């Protein structure tokens, strides 16, 4: 694996993360394998994260895929929680305090903020990338943009089917 520089200034973090993700995923086209490596990288390199994972769309539910962190909810209905909202609306959802989000699904009671990014292959929803933090307000617009770009790399470098 490509080494990741330590103590990067904030403006260099995501460009370096994207280089690492590209290097790690290049040459493997399997979406499941690449998603597993992506969430491992995010979990281990992003500060103040307590869960990172993917949920795959299966009919009308999101079903747990590769993840890092405590055991998670296995199945999420599209009409439930932050993941369901991001999937339904096909847009990223950033929640500063999940305790204030109506219908939040508390898989881990230690989570306080969440960022969910839809995985779209053209018009087809494949699933979502879900990131949780124990810190309220953890995810900022720069994080959302940087993580959306990382999710786009996953889709660019993988076959869109499982």
In short:
Helices cover 35% and strands 26% of the residues. It has helices spanning 10-25, 31-45, 81-89, 141-156, and strands at 51-58, 61-69, 75-77, 93-95, 113-121, 124-133. The chain has a six-stranded antiparallel sheet with strand order 3-2-1-6-5-4, sandwiched between helices.
Question: What order do the helices and strands follow?
Answer: HHEEEHEEEH
Q: Which parts are unreliable, with pLDDT below 50 for 5 consecutive residues or more? A: none
Q: What does the largest sheet look like? A: 6 strands, antiparallel
Output the CATH topology.
Beta-Lactamase
Going across the major beta sheet, what is the strand order? 3-2-1-6-5-4
Provide mean pLDDT, rounded: 93
Q: Would you identify the CATH H-level superfamily?
A: GAF domain
Radius of gyration: 15 Å
Question: Can you tell me the CATH class?
Answer: Alpha Beta
What does this protein look like?
The chain is α+β, with helices and mostly antiparallel strands. It has one domain: GAF domain (Beta-Lactamase). The chain contains four helices and six strands; from the N terminus they run ααβββαβββα. The chain has helices at 10-25, 31-45, 81-89, 141-156; strands at residues 51-58, 61-69, 75-77, 93-95, 113-121, 124-133. It has a six-stranded antiparallel sheet with strand order 3-2-1-6-5-4, with helices on both faces. Helix 1 (10-25) runs antiparallel to helix 2, helix 1 (10-25) packs parallel to helix 4 (141-156) and helix 2 runs antiparallel to helix 4. The radius of gyration is 15 Å and the shape is globular. The model has no long low-confidence stretch (mean pLDDT 93).
């Amino acid at each position: 694996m490509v080494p990741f520089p330590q103590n990067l200034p904030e403006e260099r973090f995501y460009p370096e993360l994207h280089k690492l993700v590209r290097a790690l995923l290049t040459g493997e086209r399997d979406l499941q394998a690449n998603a597993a490596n992506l969430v491992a990288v995010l979990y281990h390199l992003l500060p103040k994260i307590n869960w990172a994972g993917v949920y795959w769309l299966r009919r009308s539910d999101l079903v747990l895929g590769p993840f890092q962190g405590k055991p998670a909810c296995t199945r999420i209905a599209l009409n439930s929680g932050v993941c369901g909202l991001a999937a339904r609306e096909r847009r990223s959802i950033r929640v500063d305090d999940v305790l204030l989000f109506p219908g939040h699904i508390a898989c881990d009671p230690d989570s306080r903020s969440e960022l969910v990014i839809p995985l779209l292959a053209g018009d087809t929803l494949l699933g979502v990338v879900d990131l949780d933090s124990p810190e309220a307000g953890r995810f900022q617009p720069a994080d959302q943009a940087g993580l959306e770009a990382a999710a786009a790399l996953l889709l660019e470098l993988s076959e869109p089917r499982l």
